[in-house]
Amino acid sequence: MRGKVADASVLGAIAFREDRGPEALTLLGGGPLYEPPLLTYELASIARKKHLSGLGQIDDLARLLTAALTTEIHWVEINPPEVLRLAVETGLTTYDASYLYVAKVMDLPLVTFDERLARAAASLA
Predict the structure, then answer these.
(1) Where does residue 119 rank: exposed (0-12), middle (13-18), buried (19+ CB within 10 A)?
(2) Strands, E, within the chain: which ranges?
C-alpha cells in the first residue's frame, strides 16, 4: 500500500481524539506514514496547548502523545536549505514546508486540514 505524509493537524486530531479524528483516519486510509522529525515537536506542542487550555490532564496527554509516536512512522530527514526554498516559493512557514518537502521527495500525497498547505501541495502536484 502506498504511503502518505500527514501534518500535525491530521495526526493531532487522531492522537488527541479530536472531533475530526475519524475524518483524519479515513483520509489516511491505514497506509504507512512518512514524516519529518518536526512532527514530534508539533504533537508535543498540541498536547501542551490542550493542557494549558484545560482540555486534558498532563499524564493523559503524555500517554496519548507516546502512543501516537510509537505507531509505525517512517522518519524522513529534511534538507533545511530545500525546505527554506520551498517555504519562500509557496509562502508557507518552514514548519509546513517540511511536510511538503517530505511529500515532494517521497512522491507521496500530503494529508492536511490546513487549507493553505493543501493548496500549496496541490500546486506542486
Answers:
(1) middle
(2) 5-6, 33-35, 73-75, 110-111
φ and ψ at 104, to 5 degrees?
A: -65, -50
CATH of the domain at 65: 3.40.50.1010
How many CA atoms within 13 Å lie on the side-chain side of 55?
10
What residues contact residue 94 under an 8 Å CB cut-off, 6+ apart?
A: 83, 84, 87
Contact 7, 48 (CB under 8 A): no
Number of domains composing the chain: 1
Which residue from 24, 34, 42 is spatially nearest to 95, judged by alpha carbons?
42
pTM of the model: 0.94
In this predicted structure, the answer to whether residue 2 has a pLDDT above a threshold of 90 is no
Instruction: Calculate mean pLDDT across residues 68-93.
Output: 96
Contact yes or no for 117/14 (Cβ under 8 A)? no
Cell numbers standing for residue 119: 493548496
Domain that residue 53 falls in: 5-124
Rounded Cα distance between 17 and 25, Å, is 11
